[in-house]
Design a protein that fits this description.
Layout (H helix, E strand, L loop, with lengths): L5 E10 L6 E8 L4 E5 L8 E5 L6 E4 L9
Antiparallel strand pairs: 1-2, 1-4, 2-3, 4-5
């Protein structure tokens, strides 16, 4: 990997352009991305908004998928 990833346990939410907000669990985090668990069915390349407590929403892109882990 290009950057160090930190193991974390953070609750957040995810929103796709035409959907309601869904809960996510952030599993690890780096300066280039994060790994999340969610019940959302996403595909590589999907654009989503991630929201974490006390932070502004971030527009992100799905880079890979393994079941419901992204």
């Amino acid at each position: 990997r290009r950057t160090v990833r930190l193991n974390v346990r953070v609750k957040g939410s995810l929103k796709q352009p035409i959907s309601t907000s869904l809960k996510v669990d952030v599993i690890d985090l780096s300066t280039l991305g994060c790994r999340i668990d969610t019940s959302a069915l996403l595909a590589d390349g999907d654009s989503v908004w991630l929201k974490f407590p006390r932070l502004a929403p971030l527009e992100t892109r799905v880079m890979w998928r393994d079941g419901f882990r992204y």
